[in-house]
User: Fold these one by one.
Assistant:
Number 1:
Amino acid sequence: MITVENLKKEYKLVKRDPGLKGAMKSLFNRKYETKHAVKGIDFTIEQGETVGYIGSNGAGKSTTIKMLTGILTPTSGKVTVNGLVPYENRQKNAVNIGAVFGQRTQLFWDIPVRESYNLLKHIYEIPEQEYQETIEMFTEVLNLESLLGIPVRQLSLGQKMRCELAAAFLHRPKVVYLDEPTIGLDIAVKVKIRKFIKEMNQRWGTTVLLTTHDMQDIEEICDRIIIIDGGTILYDGGLDEIKKQFGQKRVIHFELADKEKFELPSALNGQVEVLPNEEETKISLSFDHEAVKSSFVISEMMSMYEIGDLNIADPKIETIVEDLYNKQEQGEEHEKVLANS
Amino acid sequence: MRKYWQIAKGRMQENTAYSAWYWAGTASAVMRLLIIYFFWQAVYANQTTIQNINLETMLTYIVIAMLLQGFVGGVGNELAENIKDGQVAIELMRPYDMIFKMFAVDIGGKIMYLIQGTIPMLLIAYFFMDISFPKSPETILLFGVSALAGIWIGTFFDFLVGVLAFWTVNVWGVRVLKESLITFFSGALVPITLFPDWLRTITEFLPFQAMVYLPVSIFSGLISGTEAYMALGVQLFWLVSLYVLVRFIWSQAIKQITIFGG
């Protein structure tokens, strides 16, 4: 469905020295700085997969999606979507794809939502009957009934996003790219949107590529994640595997009456790590879930100290990803130190 | 083809979204008509002809020029905004040719303007002002063709200015310059025959006169016979050259977006 091979994108940015002098200089002698937004990534996505594409801000997510939609031409490497090279066959590719960009609207601002859909019907040349069925179904799943007659400018953010989503799926595209579809939405709308995406995936086998900063989206919608950072892929695999691979670490926070006196119980020595905790009454212990059982750690602590409260942190995808980002950064710094020495 | 027509219809609906705005457009069109009518009445108060043009011909020229000028603009402004705020990315993901799409939007807007501005003005001009309408069917036909050509030349030119948004920071400045150039050199303000010789020569080499001056001169009888067909030839030249230029500049702009990210 989607194949990406050694895909690279570089931007040339004009580099300027500060101040007026710098501005004058740049008029005559332009210096360019090359920014490597995507540094040679590979992945393949099969028809019907739901993939979460995550990474910190500026990691290269949007750049990748733009290359998949054909809006951007890669600097080098190969992309095909459904057998087509997107930037060479932009209009043909457009028929197969749908997209939601959380920050932009694709509906017409001043006319009722229904009219926007009607226009999309003609633009994508959707047969009348198919269109009617689709609209009817979307109206039910997304509760659009009361919104169809209202101009887009009068909709709330949540209402608008529901309408945008319907617009992206209206022509039953084979692939849908969702760039932060839940940004700024309340829980109830998020739940509705996730349910809708899942249902479309199951019903039509729509391939979904989703970027988001909300890990709950990922856990509920995706069965695979690709993590990108600094333009390279850190991880590509199943959601369960990443939890197994990186998620054995457990952290328990204990509330102690007297933190000053705390010393690690000898039975836990060597297996448990004390994490820095800024709160005055709390300490945090981190350990490998496979090697030590949580119950053992807790009972050891209880036998030695007066515990006011305790809290076991879940192996959330969020913490795993955060861990991965941090490791990457440390690794980079480490490399720099090596390079300098 | 059908999708482009639907896009045009979409624009027509958008234009009727604000009804007060819509009627204000009609009122201001009629007002402008009355102002220039009385202005030229006053100019002719003490003379019967200016450079061999009598009041009736002059009024006919000015009124028709004004009607036509309403159509020589285009969607360049919108295109520039789309480019500036990045909305153009969404447009590039649609299964249509963006140039044709913009023209479809433009046609939708112009059909609305025809109903909202041109027809009321035309009715007032026909019933209350001394304007001479051409009698021969040939002139009417020639004018029709010439007017359409003029409108498209104006549309292409506007589109070109819009695409310039890629390379200039201040689109607004370029647009103001464009507006004043067109108003003056297209002959919408006064017939080009009233210009001094040197200015007229310059004007003849510019595309602006093909937008308003040539069709209106055919209508009002300032140009007739072989000259009229010559005028159509000049228009054809500009029509084709500007369209080629539009396509070329647009493909450059697309490269700019898709390679540099806008």
Number 2:
Amino acid sequence: MEMNIYAYKCKKCGHVQYPYRTICRNCHKNEHNEFDIVPLPKSGKLLTYTNLYTLPPDFEVVTLGLGIVELEDGNKITGQLNIDKPKIGMKVKGKVEVVRRDEYNEYMGMIFYPA
Amino acid sequence: MREVYVAGIGITSFTRLEYPLIEIAAYPALMALRDSSLDKIDHLYVANMGAGRLNHQTGLASAVVDNLSLTPAGADGIENGPASGASAIKQGFLAVASGMHDVVMVIGAEKMREVNNLEATEFVATLTHPLAEYIYGVTLPSLAGMFTRLYMEKYGVTSRHLAMVAVKNHANAMLNPFAHLHEPITIEGILDSPEAATNNPFVADPLRFFDCCPVSDGAACLILTSAEVARKCGRPMVRLAGVGQATDTHAVHDRKDPTELLAVREAARQSFAMAKLKPTDVNVAELHDAFTILEIAESEEVGFFPKGQGHIALEKGLTKLGGQLPINTSGGLKAKGHPVGATGVGQAHEIVQQLRGEADKRQVKNAKIGFTCNFGGFGNNVVCLTFVREN
């Protein structure tokens, strides 16, 4: 089964937000958990990026690519990049994979590849 | 509201300090009490971000008020990330302005060097959104790196401009005995020479080592009082005339335009409105340059220069000592140091020294109006203060 990152669509106004907020940023009118859970699209364009060289303790790599991607539906997401030479504006495609491992857990998130 | 004055100030060196956190916090308080000739206070606010996690110390305000033999004065701890310092000053302002208290002590204190740099960076990274940022390995330097790249693309800022901020602030820090880095640097040494790649490696590209603030220990203190008490203290009358605070989205990607720091813009607007002043009235400013790009971006957002023109003002030398509007005369977070919870109080300390005419070799001539911008998270919680010298 293909995995997704989910966004929250307000049942009152239809606004899609990611990440989760208890109160809809657009209409402020929803009751608790009054959202439909919708998968975020995986394709988009790279808005900005960095290669991080001073890594948090859980990461045993030399450098980590990180970026903000504007997805097809206009929502934005932060993710890891698996792209040799990233460029602002390039088309990218995401996969949901393990992005972090610590002693107890694996965390799933979006990793972007060149489209 | 009553008018609120700064009657006493104190500071430690921002560096690696070997004392326990409680004593680090107490030292500038002693200086501020001596400075103001006061020996009693009504209330204490202690700003700190990491004591519980880094120093195995909770309830810091209670510990410090007793260490200073100031019990039974009330004491509160304030944790608001890297904006804790100015947040605590704001609480002190409200307490005096409301008439509830006449004498309020505000301390910002942090001891980060208890752990190594990577652990300190990881601790600060807990500010980020837990699910949408943190799990990916996002840290504050990486948010700043992404911000810088977009800023460069949009406004033509270059690595040279970033290096100019670092060179200017290191030069200012040379004149500040309390600064962390007493290390003059040159553009050649950190950018142009063959050794530059070794001297100044990437941290989160395009940001390099010398674009990032050091991890510091340190503390600073302000005593805020009513006009009546301040006059009795006999120090030059510096009024805290404007206080503004605003917030922005937790996750940086959630902003319509991630190069806009809307919380900075709004906090500055509120601060100037309360003080009935304009950005062009300011003679000296301390901006939160945890990363060099932030000095440029904040100088635009607070209204000193038009959007996209901050790096041009820097190029023209407007923001250096002797320029039209000197920024970060203390050395800034970049070179004075950044003990996170203490920083906002440290910025105010520098401005009060400047407005009193006590800033020695880094004194801005005839400085009457000063401004600070204390930036929490990656711009999601910002406090701006405006100070005015009277008489």
